[in-house]
Amino acid sequence: MSPAAATIAFENVSKRYGEALAPVLDGVSLSVREREFLAVVGPSGSGKSTLLRLINRLIDPSSGTVRVNREDVQTADAVSLRRRIGYVFQGIGLFPHMTVAENIAITPKLLDWDEARTKARVDELIKLVRLDSAKHRDRFPAQLSGGEGQRVGVARALAAGPKIMLMDEPFGALDPLTRDALGEDYRRLHNEFGLTTVMITHDMLEAVLLADRVAVIRDGRIVADGTPDQLMNGEQDAYVRELMAAPRRQSERLRALERR
After folding, report:
1. 12: helix, coil or strand?
2. Which of 16, 28, 74, 84 is deepest in the core (most CB within 10 A)?
3. Pairing relation of β-strands 196-201 and 164-168?
4. Ramachandran bin of 138, using left for φ above 0, alpha for ψ from -120 to 50, beta for the remaining angles
5. For 98-103, which contacts have Cβ atoms below 8 Å and span 24 or more sequence positions?
6. Is the pTM for the entire model greater than 0.70?
7. How many Cα neighbours within 13 Å face the side chain of 74?
8. For residues 197 and 94, what is the distance between their CA atoms, to the nearest angstrom?
9. Which of 42, 33, 8, 51 is nearest to 242 (CA)?
């Protein structure tokens, strides 16, 4: 895909945190098309989260160019850029002194939405993430379960209607049942709103089940990039083959249990 046609594009991007240190990202070129769901998979320290933070300019590249909607993010106003991009991460990051409704309303208020529009959007999103407005809107984060808190985090990220969503291990701290349900619900929202999503995960099964495309990163370089089917069935290097073997083994174990 041409970078000019992409919603998000990395053009030979490197990032290092000290001249004497090896780069965290090393010459990465990667494009994400409009409405695509891209999962980025790799071991700890491979550069996954660094890649995500470059998109909304939480950090700047050491070299190369990152573009969002064809605009170089380094020439964009950082605050305006971040308000146009939703961000969900594992720690949830809800403000403990604010209710669920107040947390979701943060960005609309910063954008000077009026009270009626903000309230309607909050109630709409609480319903969309499968919470109960009467039960949850006036609760504080400490009164929520992990899954409920992460649903509020997703609602807050969607509050101002962004077309791009960044997700950094968003479901990693949840129990398996909650993780599976929330992953499916987010994929539904991705489709419903026509979002462009980049999700960081260490779970290859989660990646192949949720994403349209999977990029594998290792030692700061993209070592594989393709649809789940292409990565599962194509010729790959030894590291990628081992990654893709994990969901296959899990599937085979489940089939064996079903035959008992």
Report:
1. strand
2. 28
3. parallel
4. alpha
5. 98/140, 98/141, 99/137, 99/138, 99/139, 99/140, 100/126, 100/131, 100/136, 100/137, 100/138, 100/139, 100/140, 100/141, 100/144, 100/152, 101/126, 101/137, 101/138, 103/141, 103/152, 103/156
6. yes
7. 10
8. 21
9. 42
Asked whether the beta carbons of 187 and 133 are under 8 A apart, the reply is: no
Position 170 pLDDT exceeds 90 = no
Interatomic CA distance for residues 193 and 160, integer angstroms: 12
List the beta strands (DSSP E) in 33-113: 37-41, 63-68, 71-72, 85-89
- Which of these, 231, 236, 218, lies nearest to 44 by C-alpha position? 218
pLDDT surpasses 80 at 120:
yes
> Residue 145 is encoded by which pair of tokens?
């379960």
Token reading at 162: 């962004």
Token duo for residue 221: 């370089």
Q: Give dist(CA 169, CA 93) in Å, integer.
A: 13
What is the per-residue pLDDT across 34-72, written as a single tens digit (0 to 9) for each? Answer: 999 999 998 888 899 999 999 999 999 999 999 999 999
User: N- to C-terminal Cα distance for the chain?
Assistant: 47
User: How many of the other CB atoms lie within 10 Å of CB of 253?
Assistant: 10
Supply the pLDDT for residue 92. Answer: 67
Contacts of 106 (CB under 8 A, 6+ apart): 95, 98, 156, 159
